Amino acid sequence: MKFLAIALLLSAAASAQISAIQGELIRPHVKFLSSDLLEGRGVGQPGGALATAYIESQFAAAGLKPGAQGGSFLQRVPLKLISMEGSPVLTATNGAQTVEMKWLDDFVGHSQAQQTRIAADAELVFVGHGITAPEFGWDDYAGIDVKGKAVVLFTNEPPSTDPKFFGANALTYYGRWTYKYEEATRRGAAAVLIIHTDATATYGYQVVKANGRPQPQVARANGAHALAFAGWITQSAGDKLLALSGENVAGLLKRADTKGFKPIALGSRLKFDLSNKVDDVETYNVVGRVDGSDPNLSTEAVVFTAHWDHLGVGDPINGDSIYNGALDNATGVGMLIEMARAWASMEPKPRRSAIFAAVTAEESGLLGSAYFAQNPPIPISKLAANLNFDSYAPLGRANSTVMTGADRTSFYGVVQAAAARHQLTIEKESNPGAGGYFRSDHFPFAKAGVPAFSVNMGSRPSPLPEALVKVQKRMTGIYHQPTDEYHEDWDFSGMEQFARFGVALGLDIANLPTIPARIRP
Ligand SMILES: [Zn+2]
Questions:
Q1: Spatial separation of the C-alpha atoms in residues 407 and 311, rounded to whole Å
Q2: According to the model, what pLDDT value does residue 213 have?
Q3: 371 and 257 in a common domain
Q4: Average pLDDT, the chain
Q5: By Cβ atoms counted within 10 A, which residue in 77, 361, 413, 424 is the most buried?
Q6: Burial of 450 (C-beta count, 10 Å sphere; 0-12/13-18/19+)
Q7: Rounded to whole angstroms, how far apart are CA atoms 40 and 46?
Q8: Pick from 238, 255, 278: which residue ends a domain?
């Protein structure tokens, strides 16, 4: 009886505050954050600093308390910017035979050692897909010590039609290139060369080549092992490199895909001597907090995230060098601020606490969210869930949602019920094989064991009203372009809908009697 009364009280207070979330209150945040004044919110650039100052003041005005360590709204994320200098060359040798690989044309990548000069002369070993997955009975490193060696591998995972073996068509984390680097690092390898093929990557070398740009990395703890070089080589460079050992790409890919694969010492060596520029970057996650009302549960928190960074100032396209990032992700941040305001004004407060975190360096590989998940302001075991918000179309209300990762959590039933209450059908991810689950800020939380997912807009009723057809046409091809800009004719009713839905969902989780169980992704 008492529980029911509290639940009713909580839900009445909540629904009034949820309906106070207005699209027209989200608009000014998006307009300001994506204005040319903020120069595309680049990490380490003045526009990025303006963005964090704005979000901090908005969090304070919304009634949040400082949520970062040390009683601050700002969590410093220590980043280093690594830039390759000159036109480096990788050399592979076998006896008198030599293959030279040229920067960008044949290979691309970076050192993870965060030192100005990196040299190696290491034995080359082919390790298939570079996967150690005991739960699938698969070990590409079986019986070999790769300490100090250079490993050559393919991205992706062995092909499968069995959902219990590498998830069939849905990529597991083992398939991602980030995992390959992590596993090789754990094993003390000196370098990793991923042989790029369009088929294993699911995209072309042009996409990979963009990794030649200066790369922000989280500063490494002193003494932690790091790869002297982590990069990709083209398929044709791969064929030349493997020819030194009498092998080729097609043949080794076939062996890598075969059960019982064993690593192959190639009998050749990789040599390089590279110069890096290493610069410190100052950037922050903006973190606010609302304490819960239940004395037992308020030590736990639901975490809402949206990344504030975008690409900053870059190569001009049609004379415009500011990558404004209006959709990606001023929209999510505008929603985050208004969700925070609604949560902070509820009386009584939800049982668990809430943390609102506008995270940095998503565009550099989820670095801000990863740093937060590894250095949370409260113990990681107390984070009940993470709901992430990234990129919302200004095209009015949707009738469905895509909840990337929600079905991998222990409270999918809660999510389904909330969606039904909001008249939203849950759409399946359109291309799970492309691994979208691993490319958003919820993933570092999931990797740390926190139930986490992204709340995305699905499709909307068709046909669109004529005014919105114009908006939609203008949005074609804006992804990561200077044309991702704010326009006055944007319709914020869909963002209002999803901010309300996000708070309602967070509330359901914040008021659960027990913390959701952890399931490793
Ligand atoms: Zn982006």
A1: 31
A2: 83
A3: no
A4: 93
A5: 361
A6: buried
A7: 10
A8: 278
- CA dist., res. 308 & res. 48, Å (int): 8
Q: Please state whether the predicted TM-score (pTM) of the whole model is above 0.70.
A: yes
Write out the two tokens for 505.
């969902």
Residue 431 or residue 451, greater confidence: 451
Ligand 1 midpoint to CA 373 (Å): 20
Other CB atoms within 10 A of residue 181 CB: 20
Q: How far is the CA of 328 from the centre of ligand 1 (A)?
A: 5
Residue type, 347: E
Query: What's 304's domain CATH number?
Result: 3.40.630.10
Cβ neighbours of 69 (radius 10 Å): 14
At 314-323, the pLDDT tens digits run: 889 999 999 9
Report how many domains make up the chain: 2
Residue 489, token pair as written in the block: 């004719």
The three-class DSSP label of residue 79 is strand
Q: How far is the CA of 309 from the centre of ligand 1 (A)?
A: 8
pLDDT at 9: 62
User: Given the DSSP bridges, would you call strands 132-133 and 284-290 parallel, antiparallel or unpaired?
Assistant: unpaired
pLDDT value, residue 5? 60
Q: Which of 279, 302, 277 is nearest to 386 (CA)?
A: 302
Q: How many residues does the chain have?
A: 521
How many A from CA of 311 to the centre of ligand 1?
A: 8
Please answer whether residues 225 and 183 qualify as being in contact, where contact means their C-beta atoms are separated by less than 8 angstroms. Answer: no
- Indicate the burial class of 460 (C-beta count within 10 angstroms; 0-12, 13-18, 19 or more): middle
Sequence-distant (≥ 6) Cβ neighbours of residue 433 within 8 angstroms: 169, 170, 171, 202
> Can you read off the two tokens belonging to residue 161?
């039609």
Whole-number Å distance, alpha carbon 299 to ligand 1 midpoint, is 33
Residue 98 C-alpha to ligand 1 middle, in angstroms? 40
108-167: pLDDT as tens digits = 999 999 999 999 999 999 999 999 999 999 999 999 999 999 999 999 999 888 888 887
- Which one of 229, 256, 278 terminates a domain? 278
Enumerate the β-bridge partners of residue 446: none
Asked if residue 28 has pLDDT above 90, the reply is yes
Rounded CA separation 199/196 (Å): 9
CA 16 to chain centre: 33
Instruction: Based on the fold, state whether residues 201 and 250 are members of the same structural domain.
Output: yes
